Amino acid sequence: MLPEHFVLLFTPILWALSAHASEFVIEEKEDIFKVQSCPAFLMFLNAAYLADMTFELPCLCKPEDVRSVVWYYQEKLGKGHTKVLTDFNGTKILDTTQLPSGSAISSRFSILMFSLVVFNSRPKDSGHYMCGSVKGDYFYGYDIDVQSYKKAHISFQEGKLKPQLDVETKTYKIFTLYWDWTKCDRCGVRGEQRRVGLCYFRSPYLYFRYKKAMPDIVSCGSAAVPLRYRYILKKRKTEILVRSCFTPCPTRDHSIEGQKFVFDIFGFTNDKNKKTPKVPVQIHFQVIAQPLILVCPGARAEEAVAWDKGHRQLYRQEYMMGVNSSMRLYIDHGNHLVIRAFQLNDIGTYYCWRQGQMVAGIKLLVGLAKRKHRSFTDPESIFAMQIILSTYVILTIIFVFLKCMKCMNHYLVCF
């Protein structure tokens, strides 16, 4: 036992040491599942996304004793239409680079830490998503609206086409809610910025079972919209705004950058400043008259992406999908460079910009079509054999018929 005066002497020192040691204690994060309880009546939170985007849906509430969740999908609320999106282990490993463009949602999702992640979303992925248990108990729900961009309303700041006007009556309002402008897609030369606007609907007559991020406002494809208004919303398009921009490159001379910008604006070229970009270049052999889609490595649909052919910039104002329906080469709304039918004048090196920086190049050369060895079980082989066999049967029937007619004619002449 220490004397009492020693304890009193060292007490301030012990307090100081304990206070100093508390600075190094790792603060534990608060468990949201202990704070937020699940609602007694299942509600659906509305959220809207653009096609080709990847979105994450967190399971915001669940009982503490539940260690893994199961995600369910319903296009429309009702029995008999539920799909189970889980491997019943709570996790799913998925390589997003190997996803087919038109694959079903069953091959485009992953469950990470109770959250559902959907890759490369499609308009057909719209519907109700619910996290729950294996027994079928629902904890939290989402009303997801994935809007298409294929027939988007495109307007350029330098052009005459203006954004869509709002439609407002006494009972509802249809308007466009815009995202922030993307970064300038190029640096050192004239670039472009893109802004996406999704369709939204405001009315006091929305279905009460759906939660809104803003009062009486949901996306146009939400199931909260009454049926009598949905035919009006089908005419409303997603909007894409494009404007010019200029951002200096961090490693170049600013005077040269400004000079390049002036040259691009007035249509001149400066051969002295043209140098081969130092980015990795991949060689691709393409067959003549075959379609081709070039993808910028690591780019997403919502990012700023640009394409150049050699030293010529392919601006969206001229090459964006929807500007001219007869274009053979264009940039779609998913930031892909599309060549409908590859020709000899398409040979060259195509450079890709992502978020204002050039990241890769693709050198296109003419290649020969690969020989395909067919087997008798291929659909084309089966179809060809059916045609040949049918033709043989028809010719045989005609031959037998003519022989019979000849025999009958000979028999009648003899008698």
Short characterization:
The chain is of the alpha+beta class. The protein has helices at 4-22, 32-35, 227-233, 254-266, 316-319, 379-414; strands spanning 44-50, 55-57, 70-74, 82-85, 109-112, 115-118, 127-132, 138-147, 153-156, 167-168, 173-178, 190-202, 210-211, 217-219, 239-246, 281-286, 292-294, 305-309, 312-314, 329-331, 337-339, 348-354, 357-366.
What would your notes on this structure say?
- With 415 residues, this protein is an alpha+beta fold.
- 20% of the residues lie in helices and 29% in strands.
- The protein contains 6 helices and 23 strands.
- The chain has helices spanning 4-22, 32-35, 227-233, 254-266, 316-319, 379-414, and strands spanning 44-50, 55-57, 70-74, 82-85, 109-112, 115-118, 127-132, 138-147, 153-156, 167-168, 173-178, 190-202, 210-211, 217-219, 239-246, 281-286, 292-294, 305-309, 312-314, 329-331, 337-339, 348-354, 357-366.
- Strands 4-3-7-8-1-13 form a 6-stranded mixed β-sheet, with no helix packed on it.
- Strand 7 (127-132) and strand 8 (138-147) form a beta hairpin.
- The radius of gyration is 32 Å and the shape is extended.
- The N and C termini lie far apart (145 Å).
- 25% of the residues are buried.
- Mean pLDDT is 79; it is low at 1-33, 90-103 and 265-273.
Keywords:
single chain; 415 residues; alpha+beta; six-stranded mixed β-sheet; disordered N terminus
Helix/strand layout:
Blueprint: H1 4-22, H2 32-35, E1 44-50, E2 55-57, E3 70-74, E4 82-85, E5 109-112, E6 115-118, E7 127-132, E8 138-147, E9 153-156, E10 167-168, E11 173-178, E12 190-202, E13 210-211, E14 217-219, H3 227-233, E15 239-246, H4 254-266, E16 281-286, E17 292-294, E18 305-309, E19 312-314, H5 316-319, E20 329-331, E21 337-339, E22 348-354, E23 357-366, H6 379-414
